[in-house]
Amino acid sequence: MGKKGSASPGPTNTFKYGMPLYGLAWPEGATFFLCGGGGHGIKNRLVCAEAHRGVLTDQTAEYLFGTDCPTRLAVTPSGKSIVFAMGNGGIRRLDLDTRGKMPRFSEVTGSLEERLKSITTDVKVMSFHPSGDYLALGGDDGSVVVGDRKLSDETIKDLDFVPWAGPGAAGQAGSRAAGNGKALMVILDNGSAAVVDLDRGGHVLCRAQLAKGMENANFSRVRCRTHEGERATLVCLMNNRSGCHVGLWELGDDGLLSMRAACKVADGPGACMDASSDGVLVAVGTSEGDVALVGSRPHLRVIKRFPKAHMVFTTNIAFNHDASYVLSTSADASATVNATALPPPPDFKRILALLLIFVSLLLLILLQTVRVLKQRGMSLGEIYEMVGLRRRDEL
């Protein structure tokens, strides 16, 4: 069972779930999923819990994995299944039934089970295509697999699908002309990044070129997001000696990447990142256990910080469906939820109105005081002398 953390100031709430936390997903609704473990008396398991208005619950359900520790998890876009990367290699899938009061899990069987068992790669990252039809796997051996295809021989650190129509799409018909072609941005363990065209068997379209001032930065994480019909934005977490940075990249019709904007987030390295569904908000967890919130509208900048959200480095971070809260996890077994809402800006009209009321009250008090003193027989000159003023005819 979990262990409730000490009360935190402000809009945060922390709960400890009894194991180092490595995987996190928060699909639509209050329920989120965590996985982790590690042996030595610590159970390897999936944990379900809930977040209600910034308050975390203890676990509501769990699934035990025996001696194999799940290190990553991804929920299908339909929300009906969860896929896990396992510490001993390969992946496992659980089908999810949420019709009852408590979620229920079941292992897949038949041909799908056999297909999953055929994947023995040490999977480090996973990403579902928004349609749910494809799952990209990045392996420790350098493989990138979509379906049954191996697309790279370099070590993989992160990846995400990118919609791409390809050159000359305006005059073409079909899915590529509609922007439904499939590309994949892959971040390599050496800190570089590349984009591959899945419709052409993993052909490398380009490698990222960092803008001036960011030459020594290494790519760490990527999330692809689209805002109100605009071209898809690749939100990237990048680290260099000066700290961690968030950069906004774009894949052009020519298949080349360009960076639109970047901002420094923290002095320490960034460990994990997520972006809201529209890309307006970006959350970064650092190696120091801090969480920072970055806004991309009207320009890219840090808008909120949650220092020491965890005692040690953050392992994962995720927004809820409407990005009103962000949830982060750590190897110290803690999960922390933070509200993303910003305090309202100062209402200068209200401040001015209050100031005018205050001045008016002072004047009324002064006039009433003068009236009372005159009723007591004091002359105007005596009143001036009492308050330290001199009459005009004495000047």
UniProtKB/TrEMBL annotation:
SMART domains: WD40. GO terms for cellular component: endoplasmic reticulum membrane. The chain crosses the membrane at residues 351-370. It comes from the Eukaryota. It is a single-pass membrane protein. It holds the Pfam family WD40. One of its GO terms (biological process) is protein transport. Keywords: Endoplasmic reticulum, ER-Golgi transport, Membrane, Protein transport, Repeat, Transmembrane, Transmembrane helix, Transport, WD repeat. It is found in: Endoplasmic reticulum membrane. One of its GO terms (molecular function) is guanyl-nucleotide exchange factor activity. This is Anaphase-promoting complex subunit 4 WD40 domain-containing protein. It comes from Gonium pectorale (Green alga).
